Amino acid sequence: RGTGTPGAAAVPGTRPQPAERKIVAPRDVNTDEVHEAVRRAIGPLQTTIKVYAENRDCYACHHQGVPMLALATARTRGLPVDNVVFDEALEHTRTDLESGLERYKKGRGQAGGATQAGYALWTLEAGGHAPDSVTAIVAQYFQSIDRELGHWKPLAARKPMEASRFTSTAVSPRGLAAFGAEVPPDARGAR
């Protein structure tokens, strides 16, 4: 590992010095400015969700999950969101989970493991999707994996989405809470 400073040699037992940072003086934030900034961000978020789905069949935390969470939050704040794009993204998410049901039933899940399943269920929850047989099977999947570890582990090291067991362990119980009604309560709280 390097020190974080290009060209600097790592010295065992020392910490890298933080780069000089420009300190910005705080200013009053105008709520209208914040709303306008968020409103301007909605278009690009909707575009990335739509274009990704046009080019890929699978669900992706980075192109659908996190943008959908942002759009769902924007909706709750009264900001305009394209309902067609939003609903199509929810369907894309559910369809992808459904395509992996046999793997979920066998405790193998999909390529992104608990992280992908957790983000997908969070996406469905944020979008108001009602529990169904697909979400129940995916929620039960969380109980079949990584029990001996006491946490859920990521299957990839893609920062920041799948960089640590913290992320996987944060999104997995959320899926259980939202869609795990069929999972015994003692199993839901085991981790």
Walkthrough of the structure:
- The protein is an all-alpha fold.
- It has eight helices and no strands.
- The chain has helices at residues 31-55, 61-76, 83-99, 101-105, 113-126, 133-144, 165-179, 185-188.
- Helix 5 (113-126) runs antiparallel to helix 6.
- The longest helix is centred in the first third of the chain and has 25 residues, at 31-55.
- It is globular and about 50 Å long.
- The relative contact order is 0.10.
Fold blueprint:
Blueprint: H1 31-55, H2 61-76, H3 83-99, H4 101-105, H5 113-126, H6 133-144, H7 165-179, H8 185-188
Helix pairs in contact: 1-2, 1-3, 2-3, 2-5, 3-5, 5-6, 5-7, 6-7
Tally of individual helices: 8
Structural class, please?
A: mainly alpha
- Provide the β-strand percentage band: under 5%
H/E element order: HHHHHHHH
How many individual β-strands? Answer: 0
Categorize the overall geometry.
globular
Mean pLDDT: 83
The percent range for helix content is 55-70%
Report a brief summary of the structure.
With 191 residues, the chain is mainly α.
Supply database-style keywords.
191 residues, 57% helix, mainly alpha, disordered N terminus, single chain
